[in-house]
Design a protein that fits this description.
Layout (H helix, E strand, L loop, with lengths): L9 E7 L2 E7 L20 H4 L8 H4 L18 H4 L2 H5 L3 H4 L1 H10 L21 H13 L21 H4 L1 E3 L2 E4 L8 H5 L14 E3 L12 H5 L8 E3 L4 H4 L10 H4 L8 H5 L11 E4 L2 E5 L6 E3 L6 H6 L5 H5 L5 E10 L16 H11 L9 E3 L6 E3 L1 E10 L5 E3 L5 E5 L4 E6 L5 E6 L9 E2 L23
Parallel strand pairs: 10-16
Antiparallel strand pairs: 1-2, 3-4, 5-6, 7-8, 8-9, 10-13, 11-12, 14-15, 15-18, 16-17
Length: 470
């Protein structure tokens, strides 16, 4: 088969090695873009992508073409034709707006108002205040894993935008199949939830150090290759639920991620008294409780809480304080915006967890190009802005399960989410900000839920020392 824009299917004959070979040209879009569709989406390409499938040349065929119809800019008008109101609803959820994360960081650097979405973060090419510096950090360094972006250019982190981020499969950095997934696999989840973010820990992955002197085990070959997720990882113990075969969406359903409904908790399955919040796939017969995994149909026995510690501490202590096996503890997160071309100190830190920065830093450090001015794209609009954000940590560990009280007075596992130190050197090599840290009242250690569940172990009481009981 040969590809080509044609109003009609045509057949031509070519003589190859003395034999006549018939070649068929496919009409319309599929002539250049062969693909397979699932039954529910098996309709003409232009229904979603626009353009003119009857045109006889590329330019005419691509008039009005929408390359990413599921992108947030188009999804209501395209996906919403059939899937309203869920598409409109999804655009307001925390999973889509990332409002929780961005407002936490902005508040730490002086913001008084809350933003509804990442798209509302102000743009400032030359930050003059601490908050403006934090906003530039968010837009250009932090916000690479969200639904407006196709993800970092690593083999396992490319994904679709908008609805397609979860519902289309990518492999090795490219779209692998145009058949839509009703149930996203963990591969889609991990294309955003990689590195030291909740999700990677479910698979027992802890990101290695950026500095090559501290990246263990040290392997010369690994230094030359680009790991699937940008930086290699230490393989630790996966979550007990992952070991049992449960996928991310067995707990985090579409109702939670796309409709903003309250998700499942540990009590949803393990409370001795089965309540209305239990998943539909959970059944109980004569005290024997089982959960059916939707993706595989496998049935798992579900234990209920019997230990007396649950009754004593249950209302004061989060489950993961005792049941978390390890956690992310990245202390001293230093982020430098550098507009002046002085990159020699970063020779040992060319792993940055950003494909764009790694490529540009490597070019700047190569012979004859160390004085070039670098730019970095805005993670939302894609616009190139002068200066790059470079990153390094003081200490990365997983052994200690740190804890802190949340606003409701519940003891939670915590991690140094706000242990941030922001600096800015302008193009004149002047230090505008040096090691700016969060405002008073915003402690570095913040509550979170590690996905590293396991048995509590013999020494769980050591984690409860100092807990005041009524």
């Amino acid at each position: 088969m040969i590809a080509g824009c044609s109003k009609n299917d045509t057949t031509t004959e070519t003589v190859v090695a003395g034999e006549t070979v018939k070649q068929h040209a496919v009409a319309g879009c599929l002539g250049c873009h062969p693909s397979s569709l699932d039954p529910k989406h098996d309709f003409a390409c232009d229904v979603c992508h626009g353009g003119d499938p009857k045109a006889g040349d590329k330019q005419a065929a691509h008039a009005g073409y929408i390359p990413q119809p599921a992108h947030p800019d188009h999804m209501v008008g395209v996906c919403g034709k059939c899937h309203a109101p869920i598409v409109q609803q999804a655009a307001t959820t925390l999973h889509f707006t990332v409002a929780g994360e961005i407002n936490l960081v902005r508040q730490a650097f002086g913001a008084k108002e809350r933003l509804a979405s990442l798209t509302n973060i102000p743009q400032q090419d030359e930050p003059a205040t601490k908050l403006q510096l934090a906003d530039d950090l968010l837009r250009r360094r932090c916000l690479r894993c969200h639904l407006y972006s196709a993800g970092d250019a690593y083999p396992a982190t490319r994904h679709g935008t908008g609805c397609a981020a979860c519902h289309l499969a990518f492999n090795n950095g490219a779209l692998s199949d145009h058949r839509f997934l009703a149930r996203p696999t963990d591969q889609q989840c991990l294309s955003c939830h990689y590195g030291n973010r909740v999700g990677a820990d479910y698979y027992g992955r802890f990101e290695q150090d950026y500095h090559w002197d501290y990246r263990t085990p040290f392997q010369v070959k690994a230094m030359e290759e680009r790991p699937p997720y940008g930086v290699g990882f230490h393989q630790l113990s996966p979550d007990l639920h992952q070991q049992a075969g449960m996928a991310c969406i067995d707990c985090h359903s579409g109702k939670e991620l796309m409709a903003g409904e309250r998700g499942l908790s540990c009590l949803s399955c393990h409370d001795p008294v089965l309540g209305p919040g239990a998943p539909e796939a959970l059944t109980e017969t004569e005290g024997h409780r089982q959960l059916t995994i939707a993706s595989t149909g496998k049935r798992l026995d579900v234990p209920v809480m019997k230990d007396s510690a649950h009754g004593r501490y249950g209302k004061k202590v989060a489950c993961q304080v005792c049941h978390g096996q390890w956690n992310f503890a990245d202390h001293g997160n230093h982020l430098l915006r550098q507009d002046s071309p002085d990159y020699e100190p970063w020779q040992a830190l060319t792993r940055q967890g950003s494909a764009e920065i790694e490529a540009k830093l490597a070019a700047a450090l190569s012979q004859g190009s160390a004085d070039q001015e670098l730019t970095m794209a805005d993670g939302i609009t894609g616009r190139a802005v002068p200066g790059v954000w470079l990153q390094a940590y003081e200490l990365r560990r997983w052994e200690e399960m740190d804890s802190c009280l949340d606003p409701q007075g519940i003891l939670q596992v915590c991690r140094p989410i706000l242990d941030l130190h922001l600096s800015y050197v302008n193009r004149d090599n002047e230090v505008v900000f040096d090691g700016v840290t969060p405002v008073a009242g915003m402690p570095p250690m913040q509550p979170y839920t590690p996905h590293t569940t396991g048995r509590a172990g013999a020494f769980y009481r050591q984690r409860l020392l100092g807990v005041s009981l009524p």
